[in-house]
Design a protein that fits this description.
- By secondary structure, the protein is an alpha+beta fold.
- The chain is elongated, with a radius of gyration of 44 Å.
- A hairpin with a 5-residue loop joins β4 and β5.
- α6 crosses α7 and α15 runs antiparallel to α25.
- The strands form 8 sheets. It has a 5-stranded mixed sheet with strand order 2-1-3-11-12, with helices on one face. Strands 5-4-16-15-14 form a 5-stranded antiparallel sheet, sandwiched between helices. Strands 21, 22, 24, 25 and 26 form a 5-stranded antiparallel sheet that branches.
- It folds into 5 domains: 202 residues, Biosynthetic peptidoglycan transglycosylase-like (Penicillin binding protein transpeptidase fold); 234 residues, Beta-lactamase; 103 residues, 3-Layer(aba) Sandwich (Beta-lactamase); 47 residues, no CATH class; 107 residues, Immunoglobulins (Immunoglobulin-like, Sandwich), CATH 2.60.40.10.
- The chain contains 28 helices and 27 strands.
- One of its GO terms (biological process) is regulation of cell shape.
């Protein structure tokens, strides 16, 4: 039976396998073919979807493209620049354009422009797929917008109706730009488009159009320019200011030579001719400024900041947007500053190469009123050292990075003791003072006035880099960018890179009670349709008013100390300020043959209650022969400052700074550490007045020149019932100096009288327990107090006592007195006693309005 079952099982299994094998099968090639087809169809579907989506998106973007008119292409609307009184001082854009006709444009210029900007210009219809593909390849690694694929036609569209800012290079903008370029190519010929472009491009120094630039740079008409000049002009539009041959000849030559190379590549010039042309100096044939252009240099640095500020704040092009720009420029101050820097009428400069930079800020508003970007400027929109210079400000940094934060965060007083002693940097090297001497323990005030370096470095360590950084940032200075972006280091106690504009604004906060406003040139921009854009920044409390006042008080002394007192003070103008000087290293002095007293940079920032003015003097190339500042040249910043400050202060009210309630002035004993009030024998010459944050002033009295005044003795008080009066007596106070006048401060029931006598009578005193205290006062010193208490019985008690024992009353008994023993001395601070004195009445005053004391009886 089991065998049958086993055989049947084998047969069933075989039949089952046969059924399976009878089903149709697919080989690997068939499966692979089906899979590929599916992938292909999916890919084609995705491409189609992307194409349809892109086309739809393109149509959507194009539907909102702006209209393009010939006026957009050919013209621009100028912008008016107004000074702080509303007068038009300059016009940007339109009026600086000279239009060239097609027949006035030389072929050499056309060849140069097409070679560098768009070699397939005559072949495409407004957009260049090959150029776009190349740009797209470059953008894979560089990010969108890292390289442009724009044709000359597209660039003309961009200049006419779109922004040129990199941030605006969006996909939508690119789609609209391409669409308008296609339309433009249908409406105008290639020569017309090229002519539009040549008349439209910006050529630096407020010049628009290459025809205008030809006259500005070479003093000739466009059809007269040579090959090197044409190559130079063709290369400018990409980065006009960077390739300006007057201000950046090295970069300009590189750009010109690149244009020549591209002309060779485009078969418009032979290699030999290009090489011959490259030898021509880029400065050759450049012309000087006209008289009108030279007059514009008076406010050129200020104008440069105005343009940058408008572009940054509004994203509009002030050269073409037709704006009315209200600036904060004080033209009178600007003209005087220009004359100070560019003549010998006010300051004698040692040579023409010496440079200077000046920033003048309204201390209350933060408005930039005048800017001096340099001396002997020969080009417009040139280097503005007041905004762009990267030089250390030397010791002018100390109030900003060290002592301001010490008052703000550590509650330092102006008396705070700091030690002037040898100091070694943790990174190695010694820190010296200018005189290579050390003064030992000195006050913070002294450390600032005499600009001692080790105390500043040690105080920065006490403050800490975090708090110092925070303090600086609150004043518009970012030290995190210093020292290769590592932030503050020890040496930043005595220096750091700050521009004159930043420095003047930071010091203005000291003048303005600690309120900081970011310095700004433009208050308001009005668009063509009348819309106004307010560009006034918000002010903020950058430090406590106590910090601002205490730093100012120190810097007022600094102005009137040392050589400053002969260079800075102005009659009737309260001022504060700080010098700053940088140094060459010993190695640099040897290498460049620099004398020991030679320095690279000299600074001064001074301020009144109205203005803050920062001045730098030095050489652009500080290591060239003779380019160092002598001792006399180091005085120039203060002389420049004084010349400008004295002029602008004539038309304003010059007030002194008022001490805020958060600050107290206290007479302290000089040299005491911790600080103490003067003792009874402290010499007058050892008493100094210093400022303390309220609540931190000293209360202890110094005993350095003798002990404190001891308490008086022998205080007794007796009450006479018959006369209803209290007689108070005390011992005579003995002093080492018999000639000193001793006054006694007697306080009865809270009322104080001052007397030279040794007794005092109070008639008809109030009933109940009365406290009587006595202290001694010699000059301004007050001793501790001693006290007694006495009880004056009520009248009802006296009547009861009289009725019980009237028969035994006698004349002697009627004069019986109640007495009390002397209590232990009670200490009292001088301020407490003085407070009691201020609330007292004189010896003739009553303890009560209806009860007057009798005259004092001398012992």
């Amino acid at each position: 039976m089991s065998e049958k079952k086993e055989n049947m099982s084998r047969v069933s299994k075989k039949q089952s396998e046969q059924k399976k094998s009878s089903k149709p099968t697919k080989n690997k090639k068939q499966v692979s073919k089906i899979t590929f087809k599916k992938i292909l169809w999916i890919a084609l579907a995705l491409v189609a979807a992307i194409f349809i989506g892109s086309a739809g998106l393109f149509v959507y973007y194009v539907s909102s493209a702006p209209d393009l008119t010939e006026k957009d292409i050919t013209g621009s609307i100028s912008s008016d620049i107004l000074d702080d009184k509303g007068n038009v001082i300059y016009t940007l854009g339109g009026q600086k354009r000279e239009i060239a006709t097609e027949d006035q444009i030389p072929q050499v210029l056309k060849d140069a422009i097409i070679s560098i900007e768009d070699q397939r210009f005559y072949e495409h219809n407004g957009i260049d797929p090959i150029r776009i593909a190349g740009a797209a390849l470059a953008n894979i690694t560089g990010g969108f917008g890292s390289q442009g694929g724009s044709t000359i036609t597209q660039q003309l569209i961009k200049l006419s109706v779109f922004s040129t800012n990199k941030a605006d290079q969006t996909l939508k903008r690119k789609a609209q730009e391409a669409w308008l370029a296609l339309k433009l190519e249908r409406d105008y010929s290639k020569e017309q488009i090229l002519t539009f472009y040549i008349n439209k491009v910006y050529m630096s120094d407020n010049n628009y159009g290459i025809s205008t630039a030809s006259n500005y740079y070479y003093g000739k008409e466009l059809n007269e320019i040579t090959l090197p000049e044409a190559a130079m002009l063709a290369g400018l539009p990409q980065l006009p200011n960077a390739y300006n041959p007057k201000t950046n000849p090295e970069q300009a030559k590189k750009r010109r030579d690149l244009v020549l190379d591209m002309m060779v590549e485009n078969n418009k010039l032979s290699a030999e001719e290009a090489q011959k042309t490259k030898v021509v100096p880029v400065e050759e044939n450049l012309v000087s400024l006209t008289e009108e252009q030279s007059n514009d240099l008076v406010f050129d640095s200020y104008l440069k900041e105005v343009i940058l500020e408008v572009e940054e704040q509004t994203k509009l092009n002030p050269h073409t947007a037709g704006l009315t720009i209200q600036t904060n420029l004080d033209m009178d101050a600007q003209k005087r500053l220009f004359d100070i820097l560019n003549s010998d009428e006010y300051v004698n400069f040692p040579d023409q190469n010496l440079q200077a930079a000046v920033s003048m800020v309204d201390a209350k508003t933060g408005q930039l009123k005048a800017i001096g970007g340099g001396r002997n400027q020969e080009v417009r929109m040139g280097t503005n050292r007041a905004a762009d210079m990267n030089r250390s400000i030397g010791s002018a940094m100390k109030p900003l990075s060290v002592y301001g934060p010490a008052i703000e965060y550590l509650n330092y007083s102006t008396y705070q003791q700091v030690v002037d002693e040898p100091y070694e940097y943790k990174s190695g090297g010694s820190l010296y003072n200018y005189d290579r001497k050390y003064l030992g323990p000195i006050t913070m005030r002294k450390a600032v006035i005499d600009s001692r370096n080790p105390p500043a470095a040690k105080t920065l360590q006490e403050v800490g880099y975090a708090d110092s950084t925070s303090f600086l940032k609150n004043l518009g200075i970012d030290p995190t960018k210093w020292n290769n972006n590592t932030g503050l280091v020890e040496s930043n106690a005595i220096g750091g890179e700050v521009t004159p504009i930043e420095l003047s604004a930071a010091y203005a906060a000291f003048s303005n009670g600690g309120i900081y406003t970011k310095p700004y040139t433009v208050s308001k921009v009005t668009l063509q349709d009348g819309e106004e854009i307010d560009l006034t920044p918000k002010s903020k409390q950058s430090m406590k008013d106590s910090t601002a006042y205490m730093i100012t008080d120190i810097l007022k002394d600094t102005v009137n100390s040392g050589s400053n007192q002969n260079l800075v003070p102005i009659q009737g103008v309260p001022q504060a300020g700080k010098t700053g000087t940088t140094n060459y290293t010993d190695e640099e002095k040897v290498k460049y043959n620099i004398p020991n007293d030679g320095v690279p940079d000299s600074w001064f920032n001074g301020y009144s209650s109205n203005y803050s003015i920062a001045v730098w003097v030095g050489y652009d190339k500080k290591f060239e022969d003779g380019n160092w500042l002598s001792t006399s040249s180091q005085q120039l910043p203060r002389k420049i400052y004084r010349s400008l400050m004295s002029y602008v202060s004539q038309s304003v009210e010059n007030t002194d700074w008022k001490k805020p309630s958060s600050v107290v002035e206290v007479a302290v004993e000089d040299g005491s550490n911790p600080v103490k009030l003067p003792g009874p024998n402290t010499p007058i010459e050892k008493i100094v007045n210093e400022l303390f944050i309220k609540g931190t002033q000293p209360t202890a009295i110094s005993a350095a020149f003798g002990e404190e005044l001891k308490a008086p003795s022998g205080l007794t008080a007796k009450y006479n019932k018959e006369k209803d009066e209290i007689t108070v007596k005390w011992d005579k106070y003995d002093t080492a100096n018999k000639k000193e006048t001793v006054n006694y401060l007697l306080t009865i029931a809270g009322q104080t009288v001052e007397t030279k006598n040794l007794s005092y009578i109070v008639q008809k005193p109030t009933e109940g327990e009365i406290e009587i205290t006595l202290a001694v006062k010699i000059k301004d010193q007050v001793s501790s107090k001693i006290a007694v208490t006495i009880t004056v019985p009520s009248k009802e008690e006296e009547k009861d006592s009289s009725s019980k024992d009237s028969s035994s009353e006698s004349s002697e008994e009627s004069s019986e007195e109640s007495s009390i023993e002397l209590s232990k001395p009670e200490s009292s601070s001088e301020s407490q006693v003085e407070s009691e004195i201020q609330s007292s009445v004189e010896s003739s005053s009553a303890l009560q309005s209806s009860k007057k004391p009798a005259a004092n009886s001398a012992n």
